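Researcher: Quick test of sequence recovery. Tokens follow.
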């Protein structure tokens, strides 16, 4: 029989998308910019027990920034506002690429830290 998840499995150190508590706000804020993450970011925030007021604040700021970008693009394009769709794929892809780079850097740093702490413990 597989062990059931315990409190440790949901601690900040064992968290998935949000990671440590200090990264919760970043995940929620910038998660609103990425198409699939936008819909799912509330799950790890809830698992990590992010305070509701803080979640609403960062969700509102992230959504407002994302929407303002497209409103400004539409305004700037004027009668050619339908071209915003052409720009949105570039913006989405750039945002996704930046998040992948940030995650990769985070994983590399975490691996290096664990390896370094493993060497000093011996």
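Model:
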């Amino acid at each position: 029989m597989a062990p059931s998840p315990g409190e440790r499995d949901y601690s900040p150190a064992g968290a998935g998308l949000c990671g440590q508590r200090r990264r919760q706000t970043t995940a929620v804020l910038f998660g609103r910019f990425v198409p699939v993450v936008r819909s799912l970011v509330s799950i790890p925030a809830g698992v990590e027990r992010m305070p509701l007021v803080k979640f609403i604040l960062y969700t509102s700021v992230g959504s407002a920034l994302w929407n303002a970008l497209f409103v400004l693009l539409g305004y700037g394009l004027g009668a050619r506002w339908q071209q915003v769709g052409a720009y949105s794929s570039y913006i989405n892809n750039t945002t996704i690429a930046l998040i992948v780079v940030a995650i990769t850097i985070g994983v590399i740093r975490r691996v290096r830290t664990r390896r370094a702490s493993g060497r000093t413990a011996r």
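Confidence is low (pLDDT under 50) at residues 1-19.
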